[in-house]
Design a protein that fits this description.
Layout lengths: L1 E4 L12 E2 L4 E2 L4 E4 L20 H16 L13 H6 L7 H5 L4 H26 L15 H37 L23 E3 L2 H7 L9 E4 H14 L4 E13 L4 E11 L8 E7 L5 E9 L2 H17 L10 H11 L6 E5 L2 E8 L2 E8 L5
Antiparallel strand pairs: 1-4, 2-3, 5-7, 6-10, 7-8, 8-9, 9-10, 10-13, 11-12, 12-13
Helix pairs in contact: 7-8, 8-9
Amino acid sequence: MIRRICPTCDQVMNSAHYCKTCKQWVKHPYVRDVTYYLNEQHAAAEKDCSYHNSQQNQDNDAAWKRRAMQGQNPAQPAGSGSSRTQQTQTAWVPRNDYRGSKAAGSAAAAEHDRAQAATSAAATEARNAAKPVANWTLGRLPRERSGKNKVGLIILVIFVTVKLLDACSAYVTNAAYKLMSEIPENEYDIDLGNFSAEEEYGENGFTELTDAEAKEGGIACTDCAHFPLNGRELEEPMKEVLLAHGLEVKASERYSMNETYGDGTSWFATWINYDLANGPKNGYQYAELDYDTATEEVHSISITVEDPATLAEVTGAVLELMEEKGGLSAGESCADQVRQELSRAVEQENGYQLKKGLMMVEGVCYDNSYSITISPVYQEE
């Protein structure tokens, strides 16, 4: 499974660049291919285990109680063993079964009654013999009952001890605070310098720019490849494609990050994040449009949904939209091919990859969701 990991908080990122845990935009997230689940729900295909089959455990408990009420040993499966063995296990047979059983006969019932009467008489005699006699001459209860008083006394001692310890702890804490407040603080005269967001750190330092400053130069950034397609003009058509395929857009938000570096490179990015309604399995779904802040040329388009078939259809529609707007050349048209291949190939271990000309379509599956990214191939100058 391919995961994007935030380098700041080490949490899985659901978006291509934005981390919802630490509320930061990440230019280069860590990309990991992992085969385990850490504090995450594993895939639906891996839920065939005793931990999740709670209904089967409840059915087994119900069968256990039902066999006990029917006069059978719960540990013995129904229908196993001889009838003679089941009759001798009297711990699981109600008393009325001896009287009403035609198979046992009247002689067995009479014998059982006599045995039960003898047992009851012996038990009564034993209880009477063991019952302590009150010492009326001294006016106190028998010695055996004094154990209850001991238990109550122990509980009282523990309660008082806890209260005393609590009071002592509060007293010591207040005294410590009072003592610390009276101690004068040391004063340190240290010049920490004047740091700002625009200060350059060494040879590869960076300077953060506003959107207006990035647009003022009118030059595309150097760290990303670009489609010949205007991202701002694609915002509304992209939303219409999502709605047409049953994906409810709850909200859309705009973010930007613009930086220039000491080595002469730059990175200007504006993201339009379409927050979609959760899927049938309550999974997080979203779409993201990334384009250059200075020239508004598209960097990439990302979509994440729960259903691979829906992802294939939406991706095909987005590719057709890009081709209609002039963002793809004739040799890069692949909408029908993606619709046919994506839903099956994206579930494979290595995901889905399709390169057409200078365009790349990449799909991965992680955390019960399926994600696709459409981006131009970056070429080193």
